[in-house]
Amino acid sequence: MVRRFDWLSAKWRVSRYFRCKLRLWQSFGLAILVVLAFPHASFSSSTPPADSTQAKNILILYAFSDPHIFAPVDSFKSAVRERVPGPVNFFVEYMESQRLEDPGYEKSLSETFRHTYGGQHLDVVIVATIPALQFAMAHRQELFPGVPIVFNHIDARRVPKQGVWPGITGVTETVDVHGSVDLVFRLQPDTHNVAVIAGTTGYEKYWLGVLHRELSSRSENVKVLDLVGLPSNELMQRVSQFPPHTAVFFLLTPQLSAQPVLGTYELIEEIGRRVPTYCMFFPNYCIDREGIGGSFADLEEQNVKTAELVARIFSGEKPENIPVVHDSGARTVADSRQLTRWKLSESRLPPGSIVLFRPPSAWQQHKLLILVSAAVIVFQLLLILGLLRERSGKRRTVIRLTESEERFRVMADSAPTLIWMTDVNGGFTYLNQRTLDFTRAAPDALRNGGWQSFIHPDDLRGVLETNASALRRREGFSKEFRLRRHDGVYRWMFDVSAPRLRKDGSFAGFIGSIIDISDQKTATEALTKLGGRLMEAQETERNLIARELHDDICQRLAMLSCKIENAMEHPASSSEGHHDDMKEIWDQCSNLAGDVQKLSHELHSSILDHLGLAAAADNFCAEFSQQHDVRVEFTQQSVPNSLSRDASLSLFRILQETLRNAFKHSGVRLFHVCLAGTPCELTLQVRDQGIGFDVRKARVNGGLGLISMQERVSLLHGSVVIESSPHQGTKIEVSIPLGESGVETAKKASAG
Q1: What is the value of pTM for the model shown?
Q2: Taking burial as the number of CB atoms within 10 A of a residue's CB, which of 340, 354, 440, 629 is the most buried?
Q3: Is there a single domain that holds both residue 322 and residue 337?
Q4: Cα–chain-centroid distance for residue 85?
Q5: Shortest CA distance to 671 belongs to which of 616, 729, 598, 721?
């Protein structure tokens, strides 16, 4: 609250401050002119300027312990540092003037200051109010001998007219007792009683006498009630007994060391709620504390002028040569809320008064509504102008759209693809000329569902399902199908579409293009056949290697093992060490024979040829479990015995590759393998609960195992489904068709 008052009161100080700055600049300009006019003139000063590089030390003594009474000390520090070059150190002490009349307190205070600042070099001492000045003068020689003293917040009536004390200068303030009393009778001309609440210190008694003299000169009918030094409970009791038409002057200064039931601030607030209350000085504890106001000096002006005197002393001037500076006078300050509360007319205030906390004006209260209304009006005017402009530009837009549509038609008809558009229901709304030339059908015949007759019967169902799904999801799609040309030949086509959106983001249909991929299909099938033949050659080579390993190497190693075993059973005269070496050789040869045999089974399983896919898969799972110390659970159901060699071998290789990858990457030791058959297809499923992987990234990276698996299944016209995600396990399901339309058909196609 105190800060709010200081900030608002600063508004009427700013102009006076800048006038002072203007006079300083005028003086500076005059000095420059003199130097230019008399370049050979010499100027000397009896006192050399101070060294600006050395830090200055300033001690500030406030007579009251409450720092909120005066202007903020930070503003004084800023004012000094703006005017003094170099660093400045500040030391601030708050005394209690109410206790300075106690010799013991004054003595202990001086001893404390001597102990604190005895070894400290001080350049200037600032004292605020007359009690602080009296203390500084009484103890100057023992505390800070020879140090210049600058005072402020002292009424001009308390400074000697013939001059100030040696080594002392300062700034006076106007304690406008007359103005404060005049304010009471301006606002309340029917006042009959004036109660004065004050303390018992000499400072308060002095101003109590001044106030008495001012009131006695007003009217003989005004009765003065002195409430001096009363405890808070008795004081509030006396206040409650005040007769009507009574005003209160509050002169009691706050003392932080004493904490009664009702402190100084609580007292003025309680009294201000019951009786109109005024203040004579210290506006910071009167305004915004239920007090009406008074005539006050400018506290910030005291700081500025005091800082200017400090700067002059630091520049080399002696304090006794600097005349005392007087302030610009007091000004009435009133609280608008209290004027309203006591029904006091603001028009009775003296001219130039400052009224704080005035209720906001109509503009301040309804500024937002006024601005919004004005903005709405302006918006409506702009909207009308925009509509008129839009109306005139609409014709130009229609012309541009017509030209744009014509350009699109020319471009679409010239494109080497079949271009089409549909509405929100999937019905054709546009077909380019190349589409009509490809089918040689009338546009209406294609738009009304007739296009379905041009789709190959085996592909029609898939096309319809893809279209229906895209309409539901309203997302782009692509598909392959066979389309009948006008000469009756079916051509493989690749259709790509994207959704059309209106300006508001709503769905308007699809637009797509169809390209002929028959030649690509032929090339792909040729590559697929070539891949199948390469795989078949690879299997033939593996079969050869397996026979060689089994019939040659394994037989010879077995014979070697038998000879070594026979030598051990009928040893010659040999040492025990020779016997151990022979046994180790036998063990190694036996292990080698077993490893070669395992390799032979992996390259080509004889069980697959003789017992079929189910037995070979079961045997491989058992060997895999034993070899890698894992658990593979194998199940089978309705696996046909008459399965073709291509299908059996492909599924067996896929099982090998899948289990190896699962053991290598899953991080678990339990795997499930299921081989199940139906009249139409055969399914191989491998599952684990391992760490899983990102299927999309795996397809993009194109690992050799995945590519080989897909190539094998593609040769059999089957499908591969991979379900996996990080930390969710993996399931791979391979399905191949059975019967004449499946594996046998593929086999005949490959043979042909």
Answers
A1: 0.47
A2: 354
A3: no
A4: 43
A5: 729
